[in-house]
Write a structure and sequence with these properties.
Length: about 160
């Protein structure tokens, strides 16, 4: 009986968490010229057919929904999950969070990259943040932050 109660409690807690995060993201717009011709992969707009949004971890999905809710527009993912071959071809690190379904590179049409960076800096679920000069997207991952960090681990121009 105790295990069943715990299961019901866990399901209820997950439902409440989803209910708190998802409503704002549900109203995010995916319309306009910037979205024309973009494919939706598992509910996320992707920049090309090579982008895989299937196995994003729940924590990463919640983080993406936070961005969409904040800015009222859907993200367009430039990179999601990568297998080892794709990761190597993209120049990713051997231990890339992209290979663990815990990282995404994305942008939001009409939203300045600096606004995305500032928002990511204040998200407790953002463990890593990459800001590549000359690129319109940012990298976010949901790694555990090192002890004592009150902001994401930053790299590549942040």
């Amino acid at each position: 009986m105790n295990i069943s109660f715990r299961s019901i409690l866990a399901i209820a807690l997950c439902a409440l968490t989803l209910a708190a995060c998802m409503p704002m993201a549900m109203f995010a717009s995916g319309s306009g010229a910037a979205y024309a011709g973009k494919k939706s992969d598992w509910g996320t707009y992707v920049a090309s057919n090579e982008v895989n949004a299937l196995c994003l971890s729940p924590k990463l999905r919640f983080l993406i929904w936070e961005f969409e809710g904040q800015f009222g527009r859907k993200v367009i993912m430039s990179s999601g999950y990568r297998d080892n071959q794709h990761n190597a071809a993209a120049g990713g690190a051997d231990s890339s969070y992209h290979t663990k379904c815990m990282a995404a590179d994305f942008y939001i049409p009409g939203v300045d990259k600096q606004q995305l960076i500032a928002f990511a800096m204040h998200r407790s679920s953002a463990g890593g943040l990459g800001c590549y000069p000359g690129r319109q997207f940012i990298h976010v991952d949901v790694r555990d932050r090192p002890r004592g960090y009150n902001r994401p681990v930053t790299f590549s121009g942040c």
